[in-house]
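Sequence only, no structure available. Ideas?
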Amino acid sequence: MKWAAVLFGLVALSECLHNIPLIKGKTARQALQEQGLWEEYRSRYPYNPMLKFDPSFAVGNQPMTNNADLSYYGVISIGTPPQSFKVIFDTGSYNLWVPSTLCNSKACDNHAKFNPQKSSTFKSTSKPLSIYYGTGSMTGVLGYDTVQVGGIIITDQVFGLSQTEAPIMAYMQADGILGLAFPVPSGATPVFDNMMTKGLVSQDLFSVYLSSSVEGSMVTFGGLDSSYYTGDIKWIPLSHEVFWQISMESITINGYTVACSGGCQAIVDTGTSFIVGPISDITNLNAWVGAYTDTQGDAIVSCSNIDKMPDLNFNINGHSFTISASAYVRQSNYGCSTGFGVSDAQLWILGDVFIRQYYTIFDRTSQMVGLAKSV
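Reply:
I predicted one. C-alpha cells follow.
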C-alpha cells in the first residue's frame, strides 16, 4: 500500500524516534511469594482483569485492576526541576498518575513521591481522581506540570497525584501508570494525545517491544524501529476506538478451533500480563495443552513437558499469529503454569504473553494495530 511505503520511509530516520527503555522487574506476585503472603493475598483480593475496561467507568475515572504480575516499567520525569518516576506504559488506560507527598497510604512509603512544592511549573486543581482496583482504589487530585518522556517535553500535562493507594502498590516496583488508551469524554487529556496535538512526534503512532530479559524492552514514540522485528507487519483495523480493540476469528490448535469459536473481540493491552479470555474458553485451552487446575485456580503443567506442548494460533484479520508453549507457559521457582487468565466477560485481552512474541505498533492515524514477529 502506498501509505505503508511512506510510513517505512519516515521511520527510517532515527531522529524521528523517541525511545524509552523498559526494565522487566520483579512482580508483586513474586514479592508476595518471597514473603509467604501470596496465597493469603490472592484469596482476599481476587484478580479481576476486566475491571479496567468496565464501560460504567468510562467518563472521569480510570478503572484498573490489581494485576500482581505487571513487570515492565520505564522512567519519566515530572516538574521543574524534573522529579523521576518509574511508570507502567499501559495501553488499557488513559490517565497518567504517580504517588505524591499528599499520599498517606503505606503503599506510597516505598515509592518516589511527587512534591508539588518543589516544582516551579506545577499548577494545582481541585478536581478529584479515582482509580478503581480489585483490591480497593487509588484516590487523588489532578494537577498540571511539565512531563518529560523519552526526550519529549510536554508542557501543561494533566496528571494525577495520589492521596491514597491500594495495598497492592506497596509490592509493585513501578511508582505509577502512564495510560496510552484513547481519550474519553470529560476525561483528562492523555500524554500521547498532547504529544500529537503539540506536534512533538513526527507520526501519530507508538510501538512496543517486550523482551523476556530484564533489560532490552522498549517503547518508541513517533515511529517504529525495524531492529526489533522480522518479516512483514500485519495491520489490523480497530473494531472499537476507546481501547485498542480488534476482532479475532478464532484460536486454533493443530487446525482445531479451541476458543473464540465464531469470532470474538480482543483488546491489545500492555497493562495486562496474561492472555485473558472467557472462563469456558480458557478452561478448554488449558485442557488442550495438558494443564490441570490446582486448589488455588492456577493451571499447572509439567515443566519437563513444555517442548511437547502444542502451539496456539490466534487468527486475526486473515493472519495467523503463533504462540509457542515456551511463550505461554510461566516458569518460576514455584513450578510451571500457563499464562492464561479468566474473566466473566466475553472480551479477550492480549497481554504481555502475546506482545512479547509480536512487536506491536499502535497507530492513531489509521486506527490500526500492527503486529510483526519480534526478534
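The chain is about 15% helix and 40% strand.
Hope that gets you unstuck.
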